[in-house]
Write a structure and sequence with these properties.
Blueprint lengths: L1 H15 L9 H12 L4 H11 L3 H10 L11 E6 L2 H5 L2 H12 L12 E6 L11 E3 L2 E3 L4 H9 L3
Parallel strand pairs: 1-2
Antiparallel strand pairs: 1-3, 3-4
Helix pairs in contact: 1-2, 1-3, 2-3
The structure holds FE2/S2 (inorganic) cluster (FES).
């Protein structure tokens, strides 16, 4: 844990140098904390708050505003599949079921092996290439029943 906090604080210090006010580095610091801890739990928020000199409540308020921040432990990979109108018309909801059966994961949950968390997402800006999903930071478009399984098989 100490090593994670030390590494995070180094990353935050690098971010703070880019801004005239340390508080302006809140978002990149929260992203760094999420990468280092896997999610923004109490220890991650405390480390960021200490380094930026802001309260944990302020950071939590910021972090809960953005949907890309995770507030509980997740699987090794986070699948965000869009089910908004365009992707829904392309069959996104069927893909959610296929993913659920193939990888034993419910929307909003994590597979028992800790491999995947499945999040039903709002539009990710690829409506013309739906169904669309993000796996961690990777974008995947024009998904089919076959391609979604093949893509996810690549995430161990
Ligand atoms: S509706 Fe799915 S990416 Fe826009």
């Amino acid at each position: 844990m100490r090593q994670v906090i030390r590494k995070l604080k180094g990353r935050i210090d690098d971010e703070v140098k880019k801004y005239p006010d340390a508080r302006a580095a809140a978002l990149p610091s929260l992203y760094a904390a999420q990468e280092e801890f896997g999610y923004l739990g109490p220890a991650a928020l405390e480390a960021v708050a200490e380094e930026l000199g802001v309260s944990k409540a302020t950071l939590k308020g910021t972090a809960t505003f953005y949907s890309m921040f995770r507030h509980k432990r997740t699987g090794r990979h986070v699948i965000r599949i869009c089910t908004n109108v365009a992707c829904m018309l392309f069959g996104a909801e069927t893909l959610v079921s296929i993913i659920g059966v193939a990888f034993n994961v419910e929307p909003g949950g994590t597979s028992p092996d800790g491999r995947f968390s499945l999040v039903i997402s709002e539009c990710i800006g690829a409506c013309d290439r739906g169904p669309a999903m993000l796996v961690d930071e990777d974008e995947h478009f024009n998904l089919t029943a076959g391609s979604v399984i093949e893509i996810l098989d690549g995430y161990k």
